[in-house]
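Hey everyone, long-time lurker, first post.

I ran two proteins through the pipeline my lab uses and got sequence/structure pairs for each. Pasting them in order. The first:
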Amino acid sequence: MKTNHLLILIFSVFALGACHQKPEEKEEKKPVPKSGSNHLSLSEAQWQQSGFQFGKPEVSELPGIIQVQGILDVPPQNLSSVSAMASGFVKKTDLLQGTHVHKGDVLVTLQSPEFISLQEEYLSNRSKLAFLAQEAERQQGLAEEKVASAKLFQQSKSEYESLKARQNGLRQKLKMLGFSIPVLEKGEIRSELEIRSPADGYVTDVFINPGKFIQPQDLICEIVNPEHLHSELYVYEKDISQIKNGQKIRFHPLGKPGEEQEAEVYLISRKINADRTVRVHGHLKKDNPSLIPNMAIQAVIEVGNRRGLTLPLSAVISFGGEKFVFAARKGQGKRPVFEKIVVKTGTETRDKTEIISSEPQLRTRDEIVISGAHLLLSVLENSEEEAD
């Protein structure tokens, strides 16, 4: 009996020791963050290679802004609509949309018998004018000597003045069409008419092709000079009272937020459109060859200053449809534990972004990762995949 009691006592001691050892083995294992966890720790090697930089949220001056949309446009004097001003068949043209042309370049060559008739009439009238001038002078002399009646002199003078007016009209018409009068008066008659560019710029639309018959009112092409490009913004009626000349405009082509440009409010329309918007004209700070007329833009107009909680742009990570930052919290050892904090952002400047709200609420004493946050995102995503 004594031996059996002794064996039972020995087994009890071993069993009690084994129970005390199991919790110790669990404590030595590091917990793996579960999917959706907002906290993570780095290994010693990861911490040594991280190169993190930290900063704190701060209250900063921020511009009050009005978000608007619009387009890029050019002044009317920078848009040229080219027409033939005469009827004819298109003999030759090399026009293509996007072609750069200089003032005076040949855009299209027209051909028509009408061009020959006009030049022939001009040369014929030129010969008749010389004869009528002499005849009017002769009749004037005869009338003064009472040899011929004054009526004949007046008739001769009237024919001369009428033909002279007709000739002056023909001269102006031929010059307007592009024919050289000095060349024509040497007897050189041309059957072709060259339509030349009225300005430097880029061809935006072409309305002709070889063989097409065009009328004087028909458009040949349109040319735009992109110099003096400006923004045309559409501001809602409720916001227009806040807009003033000289206010700063920041804009970018639609869908390209990384290509931000600057402009300045220059003119404010006095007309409210059917959609209850008012046009605001802005002058660009500098020309950019990548910008073209009629390009849609997204813009903000800075209408005043206010104060708000901000962080450097590099601190905010966008991933999976949300924005967040990583805050360093006190850990058990020397290394901190990082907490993922979802944030909602507002106004952005060149180097800062406004934090409108966060969960949990950010404080100005919080240590936020402002450089290296993408490494933490990678570690967090890998941990969640392992947990899955």
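...and the second, right after it:
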Amino acid sequence: MHFGLIMECDYRYGNTLEESFTEAFDVVDAAESGGLDGVWLAERHFAAPRDPLDPMGGGIPSIVSTPLIMASAIAARTERIRIGCAVAVLPLLHPIRMAEEAATVDQISRGRFDFGVGRSGFARSYQGYNIPYDESRERFQESLDVILNAWTHERFSHKGKFFEYNDVCVLPKPYQKPYPPVRVAATTKETFPRTGTQGYHIFVGLRGLDRPDLAQNLREYQRAWKEAGHEGEGDVFLRIPIYVAETAEKARSEPEESTWRSYRRLAETFGNSASDSGATPDEERRERYQRLSTITYDDLLRDRLAYGTPDAVAKQLKEITEELQLSGIIAETNVGGLIPSDRVKNSIDLFAKEVVPQLR
């Protein structure tokens, strides 16, 4: 089992950029010293801070617009933990440049890099980059094909819908052979069987999906994996909100406001983006909006969160691991971005030192 932390690299309202970077690297240091296996960097664009009293809260502002640069800095200051992307939004970047930069991180880290990839479920970043979101599926697949060819061939040529290269040599090549582990973000019902057929490991979350939905989708992923003739079983990492405190009351109350705002905001996002061209199918987005718009905090605690004392969280994560046949758990420790930093650090410390040892 792999146990890691997701890094949204929060840009807290009222903090400076310098303080935000310091907080991000403090999380890295806590993961390394606490014995966790890795940190996983989100990719966020145009995520500026707003007044938290704005409707639906201040969003989740972030400084991690260039995760591979952050990954390189993390690799240089650590010796043991793995550094992953969760995920690199491939359609927004040039695939050759992505291949070069990701391979560079893999070399600097001496093979401690994991390549999580996706296309993002929302169109806002695409609008900022002036890339049509309805091209995202095709751009994603073509970009991934280019990157893997760049890593596995001394020279290669490519002619596709969006990119064309003739006899190019891309350097450096990755440290890991043939390339770093590739993990695809699965967010829609159609993504799970397609990823299984392609033979990629997956990265999943409990934001738009609850545990029963996710369990069904993972069965489809494993079925498609086996029908395609791949060896073994598909490897699944779960991103899940985790908050650990000394008492059950603290674990429930301390993250409640931030968590509740986050899921209510997510419901509005699903509702407002249901008609985006190229997005999750309209009916799936509307269903998620309807569920999340009426969901209670108790519903979240039951089906989408792991909040509690160290023993309670360890018990819940063990049940989830067995139910979903997981290979890794990635903790999201500041859902909504509004939990005070000292409380986040305390939760990470308890997770690393008192929860994870029970699951090893």
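Reply from user beta_strand_b:
Welcome! Quick read of the second one: Residues 17 and 273 are 30 Å apart (CA to CA). The chain has a mean pLDDT of 91.
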